[in-house]
Design brief:
This protein is an alpha+beta fold. It has three domains: about 110 residues, Pelota, domain A (SH3 type barrels), CATH 2.30.30; about 110 residues, Nucleotidyltransferase, domain 5 (2-Layer Sandwich), CATH 3.30.420; about 90 residues, Ribosomal protein L30/S12 (60s Ribosomal Protein L30, Chain: A, 2-Layer Sandwich). The strands form three sheets. It has a seven-stranded antiparallel β-sheet, with helices on one face. A hairpin with a 4-residue loop joins strand 4 and strand 5. The protein is flat.
Length: about 350
């Protein structure tokens, strides 16, 4: 996610790079907010013989949000509301309804006042974008295309590695094939912390076999996926299929489970943990809180919970927001607000 905040004018420029970025925007954008972006709008003609006819015109529209929908099947965020302004004005009449479709790489401008919950959503989105910086290599028998997914620039295509091995020349085939795989492995090792290797045929699997024999530990940072091509379109295919979201979503879920299990163990032993608004507030006041655990639904709606999070962070605590839609979050929702403590407090 690329994000630029203009606090003076209360504006946030956002550019999603992954499906998970789009999902974060559904939590950030709410009815009543103002969103502006480029779109297309059908301009109806006066052709009475074709009442449904109309030409699509490119427009820039600012609308007051009424509904937000993550259309996962088509990898779009659909933001619907009434038009406040638009250019060209003749194609975007004020007061009419319109839907802005936000796809990967599209930029929108959001106008709203950010509370603590919104700030946490943005922090989480940007943190994930940073940790999800990934080397992506699409490979076939002829070449490997090396690219990177970065938090501030989206997908960046870096260079291409050619495979000079030719089956018509059996004397050099094996040697040149190993050289090709060696160069691909070097691209992985010198790239980002995580790597996705993808492609349409056997080259991907043969490379995996090569790595397992050469340096098996290197496989720990790699994920292997199928794509229909080893071109740029193959990289974009990975993003649109939500492959990266699935890979890194598992990591986030694992972190939440581990933290929740630690909380439950401490509660069972009666050690260094508490839950409920009153007990958590007392622990914050005493400076005992190490981590605040809070359900996203509570943080979104409860002003007191927002105030407690701010107060705890000022005293050096860190905050973990549980996603109410995943398994750990669903179970934690019964506690809603909890804390892991540095030292025991007494009522």
């Amino acid at each position: 996610m690329k994000c630029k905040i203009d606090e003076k004018h209360g504006e946030i420029k956002l550019q999603p790079h992954t499906l998970e970025d789009l999902w974060h925007l559904t939590k950030l954008i709410e009815p009543g907010d103002v969103v502006a972006g480029h779109s297309e709008r059908r301009f109806k003609t006066r052709d009475l013989t074709r009442p449904e006819s109309g030409e699509k015109k490119k427009v820039f529209i600012e609308l007051k949000v009424e509904n937000i929908e993550f259309a996962e099947a088509v990898n779009k965020l659909r933001i619907t509301g009434k038009i406040r302004s638009g250019t060209p004005q003749e194609f975007a009449p004020t007061g009419e309804h319109h839907t802005i479709d936000v796809e990967l790489g599209d930029s929108i401008l959001l106008k709203k006042e950010l509370n603590v919950y919104h700030q946490k959503v943005l922090q989480e989105a940007l943190k994930k974008s940073k940790t999800q910086e990934t080397t992506i290599i699409v490979i076939d028998d002829e070449k490997a295309l090396v690219s990177e997914l970065t938090s501030n620039a989206g997908v960046r295509f870096i260079y291409e590695i050619r495979n000079e091995a030719n089956k018509r020349d059996p004397k050099t085939f094996d040697e040149l094939k190993k050289k090709f795989f060696s160069e691909v492995l070097k691209a992985v090792q010198t790239g980002k912390e995580n790597a996705v290797i993808a492609g349409p045929g056997f080259a991907r699997d043969n490379f995996k076999k090569y790595v397992s024999q050469k340096t098996p530990d290197a496989l720990k940072k790699m994920s292997f996926e199928a794509t229909s091509s080893a071109e740029r379109s193959g990289v974009l295919e990975l993003l649109k299929k939500g492959v990266l979201q699935r890979i890194f979503g598992k990591q986030k879920l694992s972190e939440e489970f581990e933290l929740f299990e630690e909380f439950k163990k401490r509660i069972a032993r009666g050690e260094l943990a508490c839950y409920g608004q009153n007990d958590v507030e007392k622990a914050i006041i005493s400076g005992a809180v190490e981590k605040i655990l809070v359900a996203d639904e509570l943080l979104r709606k409860n002003k007191k919970a927002q105030e407690l999070v701010v107060q705890a962070e000022k005293l050096g605590a860190t905050t973990v927001v549980f996603n109410s839609e995943d398994d750990a979050g669903k179970e934690f929702k019964h506690f809603a607000l909890a804390a892991l403590l540095r030292f025991k407090t007494y009522s």
